[in-house]
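fyi for ur records
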Amino acid sequence: MQRWRGLEDIPEDWGRSVVTIGSYDGVHRGHQLIIRHAVERARELGVPAVVVTFDPHPSEVVRPGSHPPLLAPHHRRAELMAELGVDAVLILPFTAEFSKLSPADFVVKVLVDKLHAKAVVEGPNFRFGHRAAGNVEFLAEQGKVYDFEVEVIDLFVSGEAGGGEPFSSTLTRRLVAAGDVEGAAEILGRPHRVEGVVVRGAQRGRDLGFPTANVETLPHTAIPADGVYAGWLVVDGEAMPAAISVGTNPQFDGTERTVEAYAIDRVGLDLYGLHVAVDFLAFVRGQAKFETLQALLEQMADDVKRCRELVGAAEGAA
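which gave:
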């Protein structure tokens, strides 16, 4: 799959293509529906499928300081899109100048002049251009002028965890923030993932017999609510069952919020400096401060036992 950053990266001899545009944070099941349809349409027309997305998130430019927690970094989104059959991803740097581009100018400069769109596939609520003035109706009108089709795909609706709302990144972030990683996984179609480099922490886990990977998360990452979770620590593509702690470590009066993962039944791991991922399967319990260190150790042993069972059951059902 080709990856381009900016319009100037698009090959000059690029032919016609099927395009879909959006932030696509998380590439959740609603996004997947749109992207799959774009890929299928591209195959029918015999042209490549292109996803256009933005960096940084448009809200950070339009309303500085309002950058939403991100469900997936751009490299992860690209991996997920490649799995769906996308041929190219175009990341457009979203600047103050770019934000002032009118919907009509966006169509000409991006879809017509550079990507030579033959078809554009979007969800019903797609908005674009200055002050989000463009919508799918306007896009369809432009398609008649510039010879491209516009197809609108209805999104999935969430179940009980999402209150019956349409699948969205906003809903997913809300579930993650509440610690409902199972509800988030229902929308994402996979466990919510947090990534970063393993750094040295206080090393109390090692002293207590439960050495953890202290993950320095990427900026703006959507991190689940404080608590203990079952999941996986993913290193170089290997997913190891893990007990995950999110929070400030109240037992030792910590103040810095961290994400730490203990790889269950693994010894001798040296992960410092490695980029790893943490996949969240299920919430186990909230953060707590125990009266004695022994009480903490007993609870940690119970946590690991519970996490081992939850991960084992999930892997057995897969």
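The chain has a mean pLDDT of 92. thats all i got for now
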